[in-house]
Amino acid sequence: MKKAGLLMILGSLLLLGLFKFPLWNIMLGAPQYPDPLGMNIFINGIKGVSEFDLQNIDGLNHYIGMKTIPKPEQMWEFSTFPLVIGGMAFLGVLIGFLGFFGKISYHWFLGWFILMSILGVLGMYDFNSWLVEYGTDLDPNAIMKMTKPDGTPLTYEPPLLGSKKIMNFMAHSYPRLGAYMMFSGMLLTLAAYFVGKKTQKQKS
Amino acid sequence: MKKTVNILVTLLITLGLFSCNQDKSDGDKGALASNAAEKVYVAPGDHDEFYAFLSGGFSGQLSVYGLPSGRLFKVIDVFSQDPQESYGYSEETKPMLNTSFGFIPWDDSHHPDISQTKGVLDGRWIFINANNTPRIARIDLTTFETAEILEIPNSAGNHSSPFVTENTEYVVAGTRFSVPIPQRDMPIKDYKGKFKGALSFVSVDPENGGMELAFQILMPGFDYDLAHPGRDKSHGWFFFTTYNTEEANSLLEVNASQNDKDFIAAVNWKKAEEYIKAGKFKTMPANYAHNEYSDETHSATSTMLKEVKVLDASELPGLVYFLPTPKSPHGVDVDPSGEYIVGNGKLSANLTVHSFTKMMDAIENKKFDGEAYGIPILKFEDILAGTVKQAGLGPLHTEFDGEGNAYTSFFISSEVVKWKLGTWEVLDRNPVFYSVGHVMIPGGNSRDPFGKYLLSLNKITKDRFLPTGPEVTQSAQLFDITGDKMELLLDFPTIGEPHYAAGIPADMIAKNSKKIFKLSENNHKYAIKTTQEARVERNGNEVHVYMSMIRSHFTPDNIEGVKIGDKVYFHITNFEQDFDVPHGFAIIGGHNPELLVMPGATETLLWEPTKVGVWPFYCTDFCSALHQEMSGYVRVSPAGSNTDLTSSLGE
Q: What is the pLDDT of residues B25-56, one digit of tens each?
């Protein structure tokens, strides 16, 4: 169980990368923007890739009536996510320690993984609903009101994952280092479960 | 008079003979002769390999081209007002053109030269001289804008300028016309012995480029034509060509062409520094303008300076020596090793090359051949390194490729001649179309030239381009000089008259080119940072409008309460922080041109309304899809009316 415990601790600690590195990134390129505008989404707020990117994205978005990119205090997620990630990391490390010293069974590792996965899916769902709201809840007095060929209003939500053409812009949305650290951390905790299970079997 | 006619006739015959002898079959059709088109083709979206800065001559500006494509990128406003960017019209830039003669709207810019460190180009600044009202300008190569202009007192016709030393310790300003120093009311015919020539040394601050007139050397009343610093082994010396050592004051064409030899003045500026340190200078009262532009305040200031330190070359031994050089030398050029000093005797068919080692030896052994106004003259034969014989007619300037070859322009025979340093043999010659002045190899006047291209800067084009009436363009011609033979690649038209040029590999400065000014660092007196600060204020008959611009509106865009007789100052801040989004501003009936405000900057336009009514203003730079909507109105009431001064947006 020592090896499994260590894996569990290491995996949980990798979550802390989210406090330093972005979770997600959206880049917006257009003919007039050979150097694309971009935003990095952290668990505690959104930052521009270059110094004035957020200001310039907001400047462009005002034509189509999109809200400005939210400041940390404007979304509950940016204060809650750090608590959840911090809490889960702490819990994971605790479980790992207890496992290391043989105080609890490897099933706890799987338990943590399942809880984290549920929270992750919820987080993604929440993120996606923000993207949809951001792209569709438009100012009725917007300067430009574009419609699709079928007459319904054009919306501007960036994709959750992948690339999408939005008017003259090509939006690319992909996970970044923070997310990759989290994913690999979670994989390690899953590995911890299997290693724990294997050691248990060998013992018995 | 008869003599003049004779000389003219002789010259014309010579010109005719030379053009008849010209082999025009190869060279003038360079692009067809080989794969020249490929060599100059820079595909759409690709970048050129070199920047080339070409002086604007009588345009007073400095143009920025790409090589090898010959594409024009920008005209940098330096010595002339430019309505396109309001240079010299906006309240912020008017002080840049201030001089001791008052506001001067124009000049004649000649010799751009890029700053150097340890004898190689460093790409921080480019300097250029004003020939007419003597000045030197420093252009910042991060903004490509004029950062500083220093007037040169006691000078007239600032032609031998600026030419930077190895570590940009100095730029110089040698006077082309000698004048009474100090200026006074005296008969012109008393020129000889009474007029003086000043050679000014302007120090450059190694940190911020700031220029200061360190000292002037008072010289005999000759004409100081061109200059070049020593480099490497001759670092510490500066060479100036002279003509009119006859000291003629009229019909110079003839009277200044009588002496078989004029001089190259070798100035030991390290010695000058010692004399300054030892207090051997006189402080002369003077009056000259020092104009500085700040990227933080986006404004220029002009300060009048009142004195100058002067060293008298006739009284201070070891400061200056004269090197006899045949036939009214024009350019003086020093090879990358610093050993060879090339005198381009413009009325000669030969090129004279002096040896720095021999010069130092002659000085050490005091082998003098008399003196002029107390300045020792060295013996021509003692210092001669060699002569390039019958190279062409009318040599003007020489540039170097760093491979031991030199390239000299010949104005009269209209050609560029390649010859070898040391053996003095002519290796190749190529006609140019027509009448070349300077030639330029990127870094060609540094220790380390980039010997790939040579640019020939031509005074006459005649039939080379589509005709445009009596006034036709001047031109540059690009040669590939990587082979044994020069190969003509491209003709391209230029702005004004290109005298000298300076070239530098693009990657040395492109990476430093600024994209925007940070609004948060804008310290302009009338800048605003938020739309809440936008307002109008009255102070007597002055109305100050604090206005912002961002895609696609002005704040405020409705202004009322302006009256006839008011001076309305529009202080306009561009709130954009995005690359390549300037906004313009123009108002009907403006006696000043438009403003073109860069992102994060503030500029001021003075408008003095002359008619009652409601008058529009608008953005002049197609900034966005809603550019046509970017406009507003000013209501102008009769003088003495009591309309309240108000401003609004979206009400």
A: 444 555 455 689 999 999 999 999 999 999 99
pLDDT of residue B576: 97
Say whether residue B650 is in contact with chain A using an 8 A CB cutoff: no
What is the rounded average pLDDT of the residues A12-16?
A: 96
Domain B2-510 belongs in CATH node 2.130.10.10:
yes
3 state DSSP class of A113: helix
Strand order, beta sheet including B646-648 = B595-597, B583-587, B613-618, B631-637, B558-563, B646-648
The shortest CB-CB distance from B577 to any of A55, A143, A144 is to: A55
Q: What is the pLDDT of residue B327?
A: 86
Tell me whether residues A55 and B626 touch, CB distance under 8 A: no
**pLDDT exceeds cutoff 70 at B416:** yes
Of the candidates B487, B467, B416, B512, the residue with the CA atom closest to the CA atom of residue B125? B512
Say if CB B348 and CB B327 are below 8 A apart: yes
B519-648 folds as Immunoglobulin-like (2.60.40)
Q: Which of B261, B288, B506 is nearest to B384 (CA)?
A: B261
Residues 6+ apart with CB under 8 A from A34: none
Question: Chain A: which residues have CB within 8 Å of chain B?
Answer: 35, 51-52, 55-56, 59, 63, 143-144
Buried-state track B562-596, b at ≥16 Cβ within 10 A, e below 16: bbbebebbbbbbbbbbbbebbbbbbbeebebbbbb
Nearest CA distance, A56 vs chain B (angstrom): 7
Q: What is the value of ipTM here, to two decimals? A: 0.87
- Judged by DSSP in three states, A71 sits in coil
Taking the domains of chain B in order of start, what are their residue ranges? Answer: 2-510, 519-648
CB B222 within 8 A of CB B247: yes
Please write the tens of the pLDDT for every residue from B303-341: 999 999 999 999 999 999 999 999 889 999 999 999 999
- Predicted confidence at residue B349, as pLDDT, reads 85
CB neighbour burial string for A72-93, b if at least 16 within 10 angstroms, e if fewer: eeeeebbeebbebbeebbebbb
Per-residue pLDDT of B122-165, as tens digits, reads 999 999 999 999 999 999 999 999 999 999 999 999 999 999 99
Please give the Cα distance from B580 to A32 (Å, whole number): 10
